[in-house]
Amino acid sequence: MIKLKQLLAEKLLSGIAAINSESGLNASAIADMLEYPPDAAMGDLALPCFKLSKTLRRSPVQIAETLAASLESDCLKKAEALNGYLNMYISDKYYTDNVLCDVLNKGECYGAPEFGKGKTVVLDYSSPNVAKPFHIGHLGTTVIGHSLKKLHEFAGYKCVGINYLGDWGTQFGKLIVAYRKWGSRKDVEDGGVDKLVELYVKFHNEAENDKSLEDQARAEFTKLEQGDIENLELWRWFVDVSLAEYKQTYKLLDIEFDSYKGESFYTDKMPAQVELLREKGLLKIDDGASIVDLEEYNMPPCLILKRDGSTLYPTRDIAAAVYRKNEYKFDKAIYVTSAGQSLHFAQWFKVVQMMGYDWYDQLVHVPYGTVSINGAKLATRTGNVILLRDLFAQAIEKVSDIIEEKNPNLENKQQIAEDVGVGAIIFYYLSNNRIKDINFIMEDALSFDGNTGPYVQYTYARTCSILSKSTPAACEDKISTNEERTLLSVLSRFEEKVVEAINAYEPSIITRYILDVAVAFNQFYHNCQILGAEDEAVRSTRIRITKATQTVLGNAFELICLKKTEKI
Length: 568
What we know:
Distance between the termini: 32 Å
Structural class: alpha/beta
Oligomer: single chain
Largest sheet: 4 strands, parallel
């Protein structure tokens, strides 16, 4: 539909020039004004002429009527003026010769823009803290980040996925103390991350009564920073135990990363950036700490070094960004984290600019809202978390029960239950605008009614079932119903939605689009005979439309990490 909008915009521009030759408008501006009417009876595309009234010095009604009288295009059936709107009806021939054929000819490439070719994007996402559970609070950064990676790859970008592990900091001093006091190697080998979390929680409980534990933890972390062999071995082991756990969840989500370089990797790369800040005269001493003053930018100071000279998150992030720019030559670096870190990113992005790095404007923070469980905040220390592995297990079990009840002889039942169960969680999360806070209610997440992951996966399976029993005939396409036109209109919008999702860093645009396709297809399925159509040309066309729907759904599923289920 992008090409059609541009074509019609150029035609409309001629009509606008006839009204006022000095309007200053161009085809791109006109194309951006075109809308999809809420009701198909009002056309396939509409131009609200209210936006043109001031520029053209005519009433919206006059403008619409003038443009309707002058607009001619082979791709249009007709154009009508109605209450200040110019309503345009696309011809059946355009839908069959362009939209339908385009989808079927391009297949997996349909809907893919090409503006990313020759460019590199680095995406920093997921990034759990080592020795802590992979819980529902990590779901946002993980699935939003990976969806953005898929979207950018679809647009031709070379993408580098980085899992910036939280593998450094005073929490490891706490864990070392806790392990030596209350843990054992066998316990951790048997219990994995769960045991490490148990030790971490016990440390905080004990520290409430024994304040010396905090001092012991700081001392152990200092030894770790100074390269103490025993502490380094424990730390590496904690990292390995944690990664083994995380990779099980990533495998379930079909996610792979190009790099697992965590905070510890940048320890020896920070001094050079601190020195550059000093050389630029940007560092100031405030109560013993080294800061960059950001008052003129209406932000609090950015802390670079503590009073004892140790580094902080901004120091590591700046060093990491410089390393990634040198290593990957990125055109864009995307960071997917909670909205609570927005100030942090705004601060160090500004510091990077002040340091003279001309790529500062290639840094992008993509924030998302918080997750609570039935209204309660997540907290590792209190144990108030839902582990992702448990959440997925519940969803998979529920799907398995449904399959056993409705289709007990289905092949590959376990794999299908896994694909649909995990998909239900992903779809539930990505259905929300990313910046909104989510109160995660288990019953809603695992519901299989309404606008859910299982609903759209069932729709995809339905297209597969129809196609497995059919072969389109070699005859000219023939559209005969509004349901066919509506479905083809929705399919034609896929590339627009991809571009919109990339520009807004918003996967929910694709999720909502998938629902639009599913609704349009199911209306077509229920109201139109497909395999049973008597007219051979009609039957063949409907089979081809079904194939086009399968293609678009499949392409869109890929962009939000949803599995294509051929049978359910």
